[in-house]
């Protein structure tokens, strides 16, 4: 009976998150179609308006999870978005995400495993700035769900170790469509999910993970344009096309960063077997 109760407690956050996120995406898509197709068709393609819409929907979905946290756990501190040392944590997190992708690209270039070229033009500055804001909003929303609600909810009822593992598995499975199914690419999502989970634990703050996530996505997609074919590259500043069918360098770099974080967290290993506590 105790095992069944623990299993239910562990499964509720990821299952609820999946359906709430799906509901949020459906509502967002519906409202967006009304906005562009019925109300303001002339605004289609406007990057600034598109950014406002995207940020609004990210905030809407985040609010749903904040509300859900309040209803189920009675305490939104579970999400981990603390004001304490906000700028320091946010800045460190952003640098971490940027450095991870930079090392991945540098690794490919050094071993001759990718074609690297500049594609930037002066007219691209606005796109670059909009992209920075977009990915920060997107990354923060995903962290509210994965490292906030899922990790925090499970850790509060069981312990941090279960929260780290299950939230990373959840994050991996939520990106199945990105990898085209159960491929080796999924491993990288699990590894980077573990990295962001350990960052939250190490700093006792989810803002570190949110900033790292936003920087990671921005530097990978729009800054370096990392992809395995030119048509899949979204690079605004650079274009990095790796030659392999699997992004093996991301797996290698994520594994190295994860090992470093495990070593750092090991000093606080006694907290991993305890329920989530607030400072």
Kindly report the average pLDDT value.
Answer: 92
List the total number of helices: 9
Largest sheet: 3 strands, mixed
Order of helical and strand elements? HHHEHHHHHEEH
Provide the helix percentage. over 70%
SS class: mainly alpha
In percent, how much strand structure appears in the residues? under 5%
In the sheet with the most strands, the strands line up as 1-3-2
The strand count comes to: 3
Distance between the termini: 32 Å
Q: Would you identify the regions where 5 or more consecutive residues have pLDDT less than 50?
A: none
Task: Give the helix/strand layout.
Blueprint: H1 2-39, H2 47-73, H3 86-110, E1 114-118, H4 125-157, H5 160-173, H6 176-179, H7 185-203, H8 206-223, E2 226-227, E3 238-242, H9 248-265
Parallel strand pairs: 2-3
Antiparallel strand pairs: 1-3
Helix pairs in contact: 1-2, 1-4, 2-4, 3-8, 3-9, 4-5, 4-8, 5-7, 7-8, 7-9
Brief sketch in words of this structure:
With 279 residues, this protein is mainly alpha-helical. It contains nine helices and three strands; from the N terminus they run αααβαααααββα.
Task: Describe the model.
This protein has helices spanning 2-39, 47-73, 86-110, 125-157, 160-173, 176-179, 185-203, 206-223, 248-265; strands spanning 114-118, 226-227, 238-242. It is mainly α and 279 residues long. The protein has a three-stranded mixed beta sheet with strand order 1-3-2. The protein is globular and about 60 Å long. The model has no long low-confidence stretch (mean pLDDT 92).
